[in-house]
Amino acid sequence: MEKKGLVAFLASVSLILVLMLPLFGGFPPSVSAQQEKKPILIGHLHPLTGPFAMFGTACSVGIDVAIEEINRKGGVLGRPLKVINRDDRNSPEVGLREAKDLVLNRKVDFLMGNISSAVSLAISAFAKDSKVIYIVTGSRSNSITEEKGHRYVFRIGAHVYSRVSSVAQLAAKNWGDKAKKVVMINNDYVYGRDCAETFMEVYGKYVSGVTLLYGDWPKLGIPDYTPYISKLMASDAEILFHSLYGGDYLTWVKQAVPAGVYNKFKVVGASCGGTETVFGIKEGDPAPLGEILSDEFPYWEIANPKAKEVAALFMDKAGTNYASYESGLGYTTVYALRDAIAAVKAVDTEKIIDYLAGREINSPIGKVKIQDFDHQAQWPPYAGTMAFRPGYPWPHIVDIWHPPLEKVYRGRDDVLQRRK
Question: For labeling, which of 160, 167, 183, 390 is most exposed (least CB within 10 Å)?
Answer without folding.
Answer: 390
